[in-house]
Amino acid sequence: MAFVKDSDVQFITQKDVMFIINFKVSQLHKTTGFDPDQCLNLLLKFGFNKKVILKTCNEQFLTALQSKTEQDEPEECYVCCLDNQIIRLDCGHSACRNCWKSYLIRKIEDGNCLIECMDPKCKLLIGKSVIDEFMDDVASYESLIINSFVKANNTITKCPDSNCLLFAKTNTAEPQTVTCTCGRIFCSSCSQDPHFPATCRQQQLWSKKCELLTPKIDDDSQQWLLEHTKECPRCLMTVEKQGGCTLMTCSNKKCRLKFCWLCRSDIATHGIYYCNSSQLKAEKARLDSRADLANFITHYNRFEHYQNSYKNIPPMISDAIESSEPLLQKAAYSYFNARKMLTNSVVFGFFLCNGEYSDKFKDFLHSLEISTDQLESSLLNYLPSQGSKRVRFELFEHHQDIEKCQKELLEFCAKGQEFEDLNGQSYRDAWKKAHAARVNNDSFSQFFSNWLFASVLILALLVFLPDFHIWLPDFSVAYGKTLGIDLRDDTSQSYLRTVFLSLVSSFVVGFFDLIG
Ligand SMILES: [Zn+2]
Ligand SMILES: [Zn+2]
Ligand SMILES: [Zn+2]
Ligand SMILES: [Zn+2]
Ligand SMILES: [Zn+2]
Ligand SMILES: [Zn+2]
């Protein structure tokens, strides 16, 4: 299930991570027989994906990875022109120790964990053992390796606290809330503050949107926003118009949809040069975009409201989190979580399309809000005097209530996550599609049953009223003529054929009308 909470999480040090990396190196070494330096460089180059490495690497590539050093007698260095002890790599390129060292330090400071030979044309990758030989302090290069490993690994995340050097190691790749030994609480996947039920991607997009829009939400700037920005039709990111060009590119790095400023259609189907959509469609696009912006502002106001409640939790309740009384401590903790979850739910809700699912979502959210308020008042009732038995029971009940509400909300939202896997599109897009497919199905079955009913009726009339064809309107007679059939001719074979043909063509025409 998604949104697992604090399941088996371990907090490990940099040394432990390095140990895991070395284990991977030795595994690859065992399978391939390449030397450990090569193995590490291969792992770094291919995102620690052993399968890809085994598929990709060929001998030519491997020779580019060799980097044993050879020490020669002192002679003039090609780089600094001083007489020094020269160190030559396998590729034949050489320099003095000082030159290699300053080159490597510069590369490491720039954040490169794959370091090529100093010669700009040489593709040789320098191995870790060679780099370690030159460096006084191996930690800085190791932390680059660790960063690259953590980035590629979705079960290990660095604690975002700048003073903390620990990593959270989880059993699953599912994002979850983890609490570090240092006290920092974060998402195990994106290492941001917990944002569930919103997904990592939604949260990221939402923050970016807030950054861009919130300084401009006052009345004066709203007009400016309406005139100069439109929402990306795929991911809802706000995109600012640049110059006179109508070709827009979504500013969300993961989306980058190119769309037409006038009609908000995908350029892939629209064509780059000229917008030939009708005035009506362009006007609709403008209104849609305006509605999307208004929708964001509504959600943002709600978000801010919840966030304020979260930030201004009564001090009495925040103190209770440290309480030694288990019920009180748990209730206060749940209350905190619930306030945070209400805030995050607004983000999740923003990305939903209107429909059945979003209505249900609002119901869940509403019950969470009610339980949160109830828990707050029973906490405030209980706290000053540790209350009577009745007050204590009330607190117990409301605590149970809120746990249930939170669990239900998370489970409900996790169900919606399945939709995110569809081609990696946003929920909104996927819901729209799922909804559209359902609408199409419904109207098709309705059309089909109407058509069937009409056909049966006409056939029945033909069977029971032999003179029925006389009543056929003139245009159908004309239509019959184009098919080479005279409807006024009394042979039954002729009009049965005609009726059959008209039924088939009415079906075809009706069907294309429906989907077009
Ligand atoms: Zn030199
Ligand atoms: Zn070289
Ligand atoms: Zn920490
Ligand atoms: Zn996350
Ligand atoms: Zn986009
Ligand atoms: Zn257009």
Automatic annotation (TrEMBL):
<keyword id="KW-0812">Transmembrane</keyword>
<keyword id="KW-0479">Metal-binding</keyword>
<dbReference type="InterPro" id="IPR002867">
    <property type="entry name" value="IBR_dom"/>
</dbReference>
<keyword id="KW-0863">Zinc-finger</keyword>
<feature type="domain" description="RING-type">
    <location>
        <begin position="73"/>
        <end position="279"/>
    </location>
</feature>
<feature type="transmembrane region" description="Helical">
    <location>
        <begin position="494"/>
        <end position="515"/>
    </location>
</feature>
<keyword id="KW-0677">Repeat</keyword>
<dbReference type="Pfam" id="PF01485">
    <property type="entry name" value="IBR"/>
</dbReference>
<keyword id="KW-0808">Transferase</keyword>
<dbReference type="GO" id="GO:0016567">
    <property type="term" value="P:protein ubiquitination"/>
</dbReference>
<keyword id="KW-0833">Ubl conjugation pathway</keyword>
<protein>
    <recommendedName>
        <fullName>RBR-type E3 ubiquitin transferase</fullName>
        <ecNumber>2.3.2.31</ecNumber>
    </recommendedName>
</protein>
<keyword id="KW-1133">Transmembrane helix</keyword>
<keyword id="KW-0862">Zinc</keyword>
<dbReference type="InterPro" id="IPR044066">
    <property type="entry name" value="TRIAD_supradom"/>
</dbReference>
<dbReference type="GO" id="GO:0008270">
    <property type="term" value="F:zinc ion binding"/>
</dbReference>
<dbReference type="InterPro" id="IPR013083">
    <property type="entry name" value="Znf_RING/FYVE/PHD"/>
</dbReference>
<feature type="transmembrane region" description="Helical">
    <location>
        <begin position="451"/>
        <end position="473"/>
    </location>
</feature>
<keyword id="KW-0472">Membrane</keyword>
<dbReference type="GO" id="GO:0061630">
    <property type="term" value="F:ubiquitin protein ligase activity"/>
</dbReference>
<dbReference type="Pfam" id="PF22191">
    <property type="entry name" value="IBR_1"/>
</dbReference>
<dbReference type="InterPro" id="IPR031127">
    <property type="entry name" value="E3_UB_ligase_RBR"/>
</dbReference>
